[in-house]
Automatic annotation (TrEMBL):
PANTHER family named among the record's database cross-references: DHBP SYNTHASE RIBB-LIKE ALPHA/BETA DOMAIN-CONTAINING PROTEIN (PTHR42828), THREONYLCARBAMOYL-AMP SYNTHASE (PTHR42828:SF3)
A Pfam match: Sua5_yciO_yrdC
Residue ranges constituting the YrdC-like domain according to the UniProt record: 14-199
UniProt cross-references to InterPro entries, sorted A to Z: DHBP_synth_RibB-like_a/b_dom, Sua5-like_dom, SUA5_domain
Protein name as catalogued: L-threonylcarbamoyladenylate synthase
């Protein structure tokens, strides 16, 4: 049964944030709010967590997982960015965008797109997500909480707890957006808008 955490949207309680991240460090899978919508998250090296995300969302091996990063310094450890791409991404972050970029050796192989060797990265503009990432001290492996057969992502913590009670270890209630991120593919150094979502695609078109 999943633990339920009621975290303040503007002033996240340090104790609650610590408890959630203890779950993640211990191999747990959580559902948490972001500036776009709810996401599933686990520690980077958590193979079981990755398998559980794939199972919950029924994903194939071509799915791009996202590294939820606290800031640019962290993001830069995990992806290769040219100067031109750096400026484009910097202007749009933090925000509701996911950027697909070539991965560095810091990224576990099982997270990479099998052919392109790319991974998704993003820096969220969300108080609670930022508090979680600060406490964790490294990116959190994430995927939008969009269930098979659902047209839209789930946006209510209590609904997620009811639906996924035996499949996740923790659910953080909180305010969230209702659209997934806008996805921009920079794997060839040229912006390609792959999915239009919460972030304005205009700067990349």
């Amino acid at each position: 049964m999943a633990r339920y955490f009621d975290v303040h949207p503007d002033n996240p309680q340090k104790r609650a944030v610590g408890q959630v991240m203890d779950l993640v460090r211990g191999g747990g899978l959580i559902a948490y709010p972001t500036d776009s919508c709810f996401a599933l998250g686990c520690a980077l090296g958590n193979k079981d967590g990755i398998d559980r995300i794939r199972s919950i969302r029924q994903l194939d091996d071509k799915h791009h997982f996202t590294l939820m990063c606290q800031d640019f310094a962290q993001l830069g450890q995990f992806v290769h960015i040219s100067n031109a791409v750096f400026r484009s991404i910097k202007a749009a972050t933090p925000g509701s965008y996911t950027f697909i970029l070539p991965a560095t050796k810091e990224v576990p192989k099982r997270l990479l797109h099998p052919k392109k060797k790319t991974v998704g990265v993003r820096i969220p503009d969300h108080v609670v997500t930022q508090a979680l990432l600060e406490e964790l001290g490294e990116p959190m492996l994430s995927s939008t909480l969009l269930l098979p057969g659902h047209e839209e992502p789930m946006t209510q913590g209590w609904e997620i707890k009811e639906e996924l009670d035996n499949q996740v270890d923790g659910v953080i209630d909180g305010e969230t957006g209702v659209e997934p991120t806008t996805v921009i593919d920079f794997s060839d150094d040229v912006a390609e808008v792959v999915r239009v979502g919460a972030g304005d695609p205009a700067p990349f078109e």
